[in-house]
Known about the structure:
Layout: H1 4-7, H2 12-15, E1 24-28, H3 32-44, E2 48-52, H4 57-60, H5 63-68, E3 76-79, E4 88-91, H6 93-104, H7 112-140, H8 151-170, H9 183-188, H10 193-196, H11 211-221, H12 224-229
Amino acid sequence: MIDPKKLSDYPITKRWPAQNPDVIQLYSYPTPNGVKVSIALEEMGLPYEAHKVTLSDADVKSEEFLSLNPNNKIPAIIDPVGPDGDPIGLFETGAILLYLSDKTGKFIGATERDRAKIIQWLMFQMGGIGPMFGQLGFFVKFKGAEIEDPRPRERYIAETKRLLNVLDGVLADRDWIAGDYSIADIAIAPWLRPIGGIYEATDLVDFDSYTNVVDYLKRFMDRPAVQKGINIPSRD
């Protein structure tokens, strides 16, 4: 039993109180970044409690949320049983995924070589796919679409195609990006969904022409843990 006083040292728990302080506390919203962590928790079988933190300034720029993540972005977690037995709070999805894999020994490979390859592709998502696909959405679907200058839009369409081509080539001879299913897939695949979803950019980037990527996304979405985690926390 975790001493609830230890968890209450985190100011975020005053705004989003823990019903069960014994389990991992997830502060998130079902965006491509947010669902990386809920999917990982489901895949790893770790008990957790999800708190909906909307993207509004009232939530992500609140004093309580900033106390856990000064970068004011979801998701963030508190693990009540950290490496030294005391709670630990973390933000940044790459850091969280690595932490959870190290905690459980799951989805991080069987050898140091495997681990290095998985981290390589995790960094590829964090440095490339996430930022570039996010800019695609901004300039195609959201506020950036109002900008008359076509160059930003063309830049991110072209970069999205380039990154999809990288993925498609690697996936030509494997089911998962680094060999066995791993946190690299949990990081990458959720960012493929918005292209044909909220971004409505399937035709713009010729998404269906990347057949290995299309099949990869379907394999990912067919996983029971993914089907559950993709909607946690609920938008309602």
